[in-house]
Protein yippee-like (Diploscapter pachys), 144 residues
Amino acid sequence: MGRLYIINCGGLNRIYVCGHCHTYLSNSEELRSPDFRGSTGRAILMDRVWNVEYNEVETRTMTTGKHIVRDVLCITCHSKLGWMYEYAFEESQRYKEAKVILECALINEMPGIPDPLDQNKAVEMGEITYESPIYNNNDGKKAS
Ligand SMILES: [Zn+2]
């Protein structure tokens, strides 16, 4: 075995953890699309996921075409969490390559934690001004 290193990249809005053992997986900043389907129902496409291991490659035909994928497992408890796209045969599906699907039924979503270091930095620098957008009416468009 050896020592298990768990990476925690935090997350300002929401974080995603293993549904079994709550090992940190990713955060909502890495969320590419919330509209995917897995074998257990709704699934999300993530740019990056941490603390996972990958099974052998296999070819699967999905509703969006033929793909080469690897199942993604939790590094701590080895539960299946989803899969990673290694290769998409369809040109229109190439954007999914190297990205990870997490099945919502297999993970937990938790509130994120604001980074206190970022706030301190802003206070110390003292020169950061926050401009609120100026709206000329209520249609939500910024005045130019
Ligand atoms: Zn786990």
Summary: The chain has a mean pLDDT of 85. Strands lie at 11-18, 24-27, 31-38, 41-46, 52-62, 65-74, 80-88, 100-103, 107-113.
